[in-house]
């Protein structure tokens, strides 16, 4: 009876019961095996790539099983909140192909039957559950001050005991409710703790869908469930929210694994069914020969904004993350080069248990592959969207003549073995600059790359001869024949075998002659197909460049 009084005193305005909410939020009607997962970030404003990694797993699990993927905002730590963070989260998730079926849809909006989806708006729900626990003597107000808790902690450490508020050290655990009522009426400050039923000699054993079987000592700590500000701790909010929102699979960072005994105990005390858990390995990188967690402070690539700024198409990042999620994705991709990644089935039991190794070199390779399969129009659209934001000069250049730009992006593309020139948009400029006079003529003679074993004088000699033979209106066969003629005239071999047999008889191969032409037109030795470049540049520009080259 007096527990009841205590509960009434603490929560006088809470008239709903846990049964009310359990009745209100009925199980969703979904097909057998459909998973309900969520992304549950705190709105701190920083989008970590690890968050995209773990939410991609959640999103895939839900959608590949025709389930539900929802967004919940965990804003019970209001000190850390940043305005605009929710919109930013939504935008980021959308960019990486993740849209929510339910939950928060904007800074102040939401959809779905299981809300509110923002924890700060669920205070009364949590209180109804805590009130009930207090009534049943399963939770209690604790009046220990911060100093008292510190002293206790120091004493426990000195005596080599497990630190914390538990058992005999939990000063108010067994306080008579009448005493507690007196203290509250006297204005003493308090928080609410769970009266842990744990036994330190027993173990909590459970199966994690990524880590396999995990075993911990039972939780004996009287953990805080409601803080001084009246809001729940993560532990309590997680248990209530994931129960009422019908989450079937909780995918979250492995930093929460150690708290699992607390969570499972809370579910038991509350009489609620626990979801399945999948603890995601942390995103790691190799640094100086050893692995470490990707750091927000040290590693620019930990921020999602990094990929956008560098110009990695979001689908490249997604494909790369799928590679880390399941290493089998790589083989699947090789066997199904054109298939949409949504067709790949993510499997939790195939995830690496130890850590998700992040590697920008690998990302770059994956991205080259992804971009090489895009159409010229797609490349043009994505590149110009990127340039508009990050390289205005390039944006102006490529938009001035859209047709021309699409043609240049089309070189060696949409063929069986497309060229893998670009891994990210920020490196496109260096690969296409020579198509634009504005950039090409900015170069000085130091920028000019000459073919191997050829000096500028020889390159000029070739261009002088070739300029006379050059005919714009030819197909690539005739074009090459013309080039060969010039080569022979200048003492170059056209037949590799003959050249190999008597190299001293020749100045080089016809490929060196082509190399000189390439250099004169692009200042680079490695470019896409030369004939096509010349066709795109057009006769006037080609001749102009030959002349300029001769005057270098
Ligand atoms: N808000 C928690 C975090 O950001 C969510 C953990 C979870 O997914 O349960 O770490």
Descriptive account of the structure:
The protein is of the alpha/beta class. The protein is built from 24 helices and 16 strands. The protein has helices at about 1-10, 20-25, 50-65, 85-95, 125-135, 145-160, 175-185, 235-245, 260-270, 305-310, 315-325, 330-335, 360-370, 375-390, 390-400, 400-410, 430, 435-440, 455-470, 475-490, 495-500, 510-520, 530-535, 540-550; strands at about 35-40, 70, 100-105, 110, 140, 190-195, 205-210, 210-215, 225, 250-255, 275-280, 285, 290-295, 355, 490-495, 510. The strands form 6 sheets. A 4-stranded mixed sheet has the order 1-2-3-4, covered by helices on one side. Helix 11 crosses helix 13 (about 360-370) and helix 14 (about 375-390) packs antiparallel against helix 15 (about 390-400). The longest helix has 15 residues, at about 50-65. It starts with a helix and ends with a helix. About 35% of the residues are buried. Glutamic acid (GLU) binds next to strand 10.
């Amino acid at each position: 009876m007096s527990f009841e009084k205590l509960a009434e005193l603490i929560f006088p305005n809470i008239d709903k019961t846990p049964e009310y909410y359990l009745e209100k939020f009925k199980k969703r009607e979904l097909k057998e095996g459909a998973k309900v997962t969520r992304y549950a970030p705190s709105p701190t404003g920083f989008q970590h790539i690890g968050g995209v990694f773990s939410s991609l797993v959640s999103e895939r699990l839900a959608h590949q099983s025709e389930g539900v993927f929802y967004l919940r905002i965990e804003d019970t730590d209001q000190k850390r909140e940043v305005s605009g963070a929710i919109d930013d989260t939504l935008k980021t998730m959308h960019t990486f192909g993740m849209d929510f079926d339910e939950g928060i849809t904007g800074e102040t909006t939401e959809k779905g039957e299981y809300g509110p989806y923002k924890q700060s708006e669920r205070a009364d729900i949590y209180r109804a559950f805590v009130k009930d626990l207090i009534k049943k003597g399963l939770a209690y107000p604790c009046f220990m001050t911060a100093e008292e808790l510190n002293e206790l902690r120091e004493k426990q450490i000195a005596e080599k005991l497990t630190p914390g508020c538990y058992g005999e050290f939990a000063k108010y655990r067994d306080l008579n409710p009448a005493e507690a009522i007196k203290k509250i009426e006297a204005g003493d400050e308090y928080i609410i703790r769970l009266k842990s039923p744990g036994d330190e000699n027993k173990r909590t054993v459970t199966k994690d869908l990524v880590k396999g079987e995990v075993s911990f000592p039972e939780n004996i700590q009287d953990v805080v469930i409601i803080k001084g500000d009246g809001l729940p701790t993560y532990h309590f909010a997680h248990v209530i929210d994931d129960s009422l929102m019908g989450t079937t699979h909780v995918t979250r960072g492995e930093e929460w694994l150690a708290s699992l005994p607390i969570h499972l105990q809370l579910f038991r005390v509350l009489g609620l069914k626990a979801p399945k858990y999948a603890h995601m390995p942390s995103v790691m990188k190799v640094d100086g020969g050893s692995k470490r967690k990707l750091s927000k402070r040290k590693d620019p690539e930990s921020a999602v904004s990094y990929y956008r700024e560098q110009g990695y198409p979001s689908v490249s990042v997604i494909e790369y993350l799928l590679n880390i999620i399941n290493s089998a994705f790589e083989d699947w991709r090789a066997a199904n080069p054109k298939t949409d990644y949504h067709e790949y089935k993510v499997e939790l039991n195939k995830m690496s248990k130890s850590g998700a190794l992040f590697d920008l070199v690998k990302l770059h390779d994956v991205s080259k592959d992804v971009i090489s399969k895009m159409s010229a129009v797609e490349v043009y659209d994505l590149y110009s969207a990127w340039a508009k934001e990050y390289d205005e000069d390039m944006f102006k250049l490529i938009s001035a003549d859209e047709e021309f730009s699409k043609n240049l992006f089309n070189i060696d593309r949409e063929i069986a073995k497309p060229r893998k020139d670009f891994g990210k948009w920020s490196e496109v400029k260096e690969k296409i600059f020579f198509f634009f006079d504005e950039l090409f003529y900015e170069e000085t003679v130091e920028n000019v790359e000459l073919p191997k074993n050829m000096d500028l004088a020889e390159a000029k000699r070739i261009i002088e001869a070739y300029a006379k033979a050059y005919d714009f209106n030819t197909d690539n066969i005739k074009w090459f024949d013309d080039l060969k003629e010039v080569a022979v005239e200048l003492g170059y071999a056209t037949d590799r075998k003959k050249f190999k047999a008597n190299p001293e008889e020749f100045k080089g191969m016809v490929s060196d002659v082509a190399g000189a032409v390439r250099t004169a037109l692009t200042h680079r030795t490695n470019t896409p197909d030369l004939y096509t470049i010349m066709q795109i540049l057009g006769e006037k520009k080609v001749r102009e460049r030959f002349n300029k080259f001769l005057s270098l």
